[in-house]
């Protein structure tokens, strides 16, 4: 992708920076370093308990880090969460004392935070939106400062998170991403893992992945139990499991329940707990597995020709990894089309640029020309998402159309930059069309505006989101599988007698054949009920029926209360976004968040000591300076070391929705470093002014890194056979973070460090139907500063 921009890395001055060799297991960085250093702090012991119960994965991790020095150390613990995951607990041990995290009302948490700071204690808050200060719905980071780590001693940390697992084409899986990036390595002295998988629906082809040698203690058609114990284990592969649902071509509806009649324990900060208002409710989950004839037969679904309009974001915020992931997904999408389909490509930043005036046939010639057009494009500052959506809809005049958006959702130009207005305007235009298209969104990046993109996807489509630390393959397969099918419409859930249950919520925003539709709800007293789910799939009505007992006590399925509480909080937040704040809704959110440890816009996770500086977010690898200030601030000016002075623009629509004057104002400006600026560390000065004329100054630092990595491809033969799986190896510079190989017509693959081969390696499958001829195999290396280095190898595809 040609955009001729200086490679800019804004370094570790913020709550989150992507690091080399950073796996999602969590690392403890020495306080004076921005990368792991096992000579100072190493991972001595790690225990992982994985429980997967009907689509909900609970991961509880204990990690013990060893200090190899004779001095007490400070450490920064970083854990980037997978998609659809939320932290549910955290604790740090001070010797033999366990110090758990606490969820407090945000105002109270800030008071405790300030009080601790005044006593020279270094406390920490985890709050929604603090990854970038931009979107209060972001939940993709956990970070904490750990002080002290005794000389020659150890520090024990505990982290628990929950993750919803999506089913696509009757397949489901779980990945614990413990493999470091690119050429990084990570090992643990003592490793223990326990995995339990249970499904109410029968399973087939259930297998553990990663090659870690789990010992399976029990396995049947509904799950397994497995254990692993290892010494000096190199975490060279991701750990997980994959399975398919043993569907016989028919739908199935199952119900699970949980009820603990004992009242909950008081909150740790309560001085006079209130007595319970009544008996504890029970909880249920109904899961409908929807058959998919195409997935069952292994054949591609056959349907009418499609009209695909691709909106591709080419604004500056899409630099580097976001751009590469969006391109890989676009390339894969276009290669799934047939000549009977039609498509067009629209690039957008502050303006839109159409590849063709109208959609054209998706034959090989047009697909290659469209990709060439995309590769030759340039990035520009500014984004008018509203204009792009308007122009995209104008191309969706044919039946069976889909508007496919590849973007991070940022928009700072146009008639409005308010996310609610952009979504409302689009929905109004969409509903006015005679044949409105599906709105399918592939969101990229850790700072994607998920709130806006979810609202757009509700217009007959779906949202798929990939983080920078996640493997792209799983998300890409799910995205492509959904694009080929129409979603289930008119989906509804009924219980008889209706008064037996209360507050029932769906867990999925869109459901497709071959996936699951799930509802969670409460019940007040034991009873026998019947449950029905019905809807329309591929134009045909279906109905599912199940009888269930709602028991007085049921100790199994411990995740259900928290799962229901999260769904209830999401419904209340949607109500607030639609109708405005109410005292009753906010109080209920706070109560549920405190009881079930949920991080919301109105609560904070008061974690173990760590420093947290505000205002202050410069996103790494993005030429955007974003600042969040106290409400009293009326202007912010940034002075850069290369002579540029920029006044930041107030983003009123992204101010934190706190009450009682505790919120923060959002400010932003875009900038580029000069191309002749030498590599090194520089300071940017922030000048803040309040309404009384008082000025305040803060300095932040960033790093310029502009030397691209080098790549050397090692291929046993330049002759590739159709349908063949070849071992691809490549050496790259030590600074390389990701290595990606692309062969036209095949899905991109990521090369990972292989200790056995002493190089980076991956297996690339040549499509069985790939036309014979000569192709360019391209391997791209990206370093931590998002510099790109590539090598192309000419290969011949033969029979």
TrEMBL record:
User: Residue ranges of the VWFA domain?
Assistant: 307-483
Signal peptide, first to last residue = 1-23
List keywords of the entry alphabetically: Signal
Q: Where is the VIT domain?
A: 27-163
Q: Which Pfam families match?
A: VIT, VWA_3
Xref: Gene3D superfamilies: von Willebrand factor, type A domain (3.40.50.410)
Locate the region Disordered. 258-284
Extract the InterPro entries matched here: ITIH, VIT, VWF_A, vWFA_dom_sf
UniProt xrefs under PANTHER family:
INTER-ALPHA-TRYPSIN INHIBITOR HEAVY CHAIN FAMILY MEMBER, INTER-ALPHA-TRYPSIN INHIBITOR HEAVY CHAIN H4-LIKE PROTEIN
Q: What is this protein called?
A: Ca-activated chloride channel family protein
Which species does the entry assign this protein to?
Answer: Bryocella elongata
